[in-house]
Specification:
The longest helix has 13 residues, at about 10-25. This protein has one domain (about 5-120): 3-Layer(aba) Sandwich (Rossmann fold). The chain starts with a strand and ends with a helix. The protein is of the alpha/beta class. It contains five helices and seven strands.
């Protein structure tokens, strides 16, 4: 069974995404920030990471950069409810750093599940 690491600081969103992906048949571990996510990946190793961008402690862009450096073949999906800072769109930056798919919140559940299925079909 494919294993997904879900990194999301908003508890309600994290719970919804976890339940949705578990119902679709995936094993999911969820954490509240990028630092915890990196520790979880180092300790267990996952098949896919879904990460929020704007989070406390370690935000998503930095998390994606570290994941790409340490696990270059690990697929990442980025999600964000934030817009941009200093003229940079967070999701565009995430994609340029190697996120396979990016989604603005609120995330369309079917589109996200389709992206997850595509990652695992590759």
């Amino acid at each position: 069974m494919p294993r997904i690491l879900l990194i999301e600081d908003d508890e309600r969103t994290r719970r919804m995404l976890r339940e949705m992906t578990e119902r679709a048949g995936y094993e999911v571990v969820d954490v509240a920030n990028g630092e915890l996510g990196l520790r979880a990946q180092r300790g267990s190793g996952f098949d896919l990471v879904i990460t929020d961008i704007l989070m406390p402690d370690k935000e998503g862009i930095e998390t994606i950069m570290e994941l790409r450096r340490d696990y270059p073949d690990l697929p990442v999906i980025a999600i964000s409810g934030g817009g941009s800072a200093g003229g940079l769109d967070y999701l565009t930056v995430a994609r340029s750093l190697g996120a396979r798919y990016t989604f603005a919140k609120p995330v369309d559940r079917q589109e996200l599940l389709g992206a997850i299925a595509s990652v695992f079909a590759e």
